[in-house]
Amino acid sequence: MRLLLLFLWLPALCFSQTKSITLEDIYKKGTFRTDPVAASFGTEKAATPAINWDRFTDAQGKKIGRPDEIIGCETYPNLQLIKVKTEPIYRRSSKSLLYLYNSIDSSLTTIGGATKSLHPQFSPDGQYISYVQNNNLILYHIPTATYKSVTTDGKWNYIINGNCDWVYEEEFEFSRAYKWSPKGNYIAYYRFDESGVKEFNMTLYDNAHNSDYRYKYPKAGDDNSVVEIYIYDVNKATKAKAQYETGDIYIPRIKWTTDDRQLVVYWMNRHQNDLKLLRTDAATGNSTLLYAEKNKYFVEINDDWWFLKDGKQYLFSSEMNGYRHLYLYSLDGTVKKQLTKGNAEVTEVNAVDEVNKRIYYTLAWPRPMDRNLFVTDFNGEKTYALTNGEGWNRATFNEDLSQFILYYSTINTPQTVSLQRIVADKKKGISAAQEKLFGESPKLKATMREFGFGDAAFIRLPNSKGDTLNGWMLKPAGFDPAKKYPVLFCNYGGPGSQQVANRFGTVSTWHQLLAQKGFIVVSVDNTGTGFRGEEFKKKTYLQLGKFEIEDQIDAAKELGKLPWVDKEKIGHWGWSYGGFMSSLAITKGAGVFSAAVAVAPVTSWRYYDNIYTERYMRTPKENPTGYDDNSPINHTEKIKGKYLIIHGTADDNVHFQNATQMITALVKNNVDFESAYYPNKNHGISGMADNTTFHLWSKKTNWILKVLGNENTLR
Fold this sequence. Notes:
Rossmann fold, globular, 12 helices, five-stranded antiparallel sheet, Neuraminidase, eight-stranded mixed sheet, alpha+beta, 715 residues
């Protein structure tokens, strides 16, 4: 057997189990909450006196209640923006009633009237409050208590100013679509004309006759919003339109340099394989090319761009050389430096020290599932590791970058939180020294011992293409190699994702519950997942699902060769992209996987949004076979095992339509299945007050126990 690692043949470590984990423990009682940790640098400002919010009332004399969020003004510390009665919209957006609180005279001023608003901010000079209301960008001038309407043409499902349309918010991962210039003389904002975008409608089951919710959602191949960038001169009340090549394009970011008149507009073609940064004059809108990058697959958009305070350089990350690394370029284009190299990918820039010319960053090192903190100079010549070894390190730096709070954990060990000091030695270089230990999760560790948590182990499995896949395995409590156990694969598997990570929480308490019941729980990161280089991640280009599910099938076959695996009882579950994978597991993986649970799955990429889908697949017109060959809808006749599909009827992201079309195909092919739907629930299908979270996880757990359990498992 080429498979398996020596550890699989060794006796598993068994813990003395004194208590059984229950679903109530996990989803109702909070039995396994992490220990609270009061970690700080000890230099925080003194806490402001408590405010009795009950004494403040609105225009109707009703108490405004305790704020949902308080936004401080850096320029004038006596001013605070108060958000109350906050209402979520989509994944990253919400709207609230706004008030301005002045601690000097304890006054409370209503901002924007009785209509809820989005994205409130103080201007850098503290003179204005900016916000979006009814799809328009509005400024409130604090000294004169007057309003300026930057835009007036906003209209639901037609024109949006200063806020993203749905697909930009979801796939380019931001919602506030305006930015103040560094000194506050200008404000740059997006204008979305979504009048030509097709509507999607959902029924909300909220009264005797229900209601219809309609919003603009461009599916793969559909027309997008027409996006324009305007730069508003606050003092002159004039605006300039940013100049760039128009057409079927995206503007995934705008960022100001340290120059108050210099905006950078990020331009990208629809295929998302051509990125240009355009240096744009705030007064005229005229632009010149600052940076360009093309890729044979796609260029990933993120926030890894920093325009340095010296006004001469910018730092960014890119996969241009096969792995994500850091680059430092001069704004005039004369200097271009690659700062980090090798096969370990940069996952985060933690801090940039311009005074000492150092960059602190995190690497997926020594293995893709680990994270360690490094520092390098602005030339990339002197690099030092601040943390070492296997595990997951996350850092938060103080203001002068002399200290950082370190959060460390492993797949089996809860986090340790400590205060670290940066030590710079001319001979030995830069290192970190622990100054204080804030906590090591003693209560959670005791609870884990009390409930007999098992240890997961990392595994490596071959696929049929010659690659080795990373995974983890949690064996059943009281593991006996003479018995045969069912296996549950827990998988997401989408582009750039990672579930095989050496951090606590990767193996959940629910996984521990299944292990107590007698299941082997496994997760394998398939082709297309992240932190192993561009080629491994982008190999799935134009055929999402093909290599991913082939890897899951290969892994299941390898595990099925083990004498203590019940190869007739191998299941697969996933959510969203993972639900897509589970649906492929029970169709294309029929005969290997005997059961699958798909929660909120994509069942055809034709039904998903265009920015995400076309990044990996291009349009359905360009790539019809890529869309159809790996859609589980087109393989339902292959199903031999049990299938449970779960969806929320108000899922604005992966529409309930995906489930209905999958079920239509199942019925047409006379395939037995089970389903559950949750009325008015979105993609997260959650809720504590209405019992949704507990019900969903109970439904899924009981179904798995019933269809995958054998003589060695417990109900």
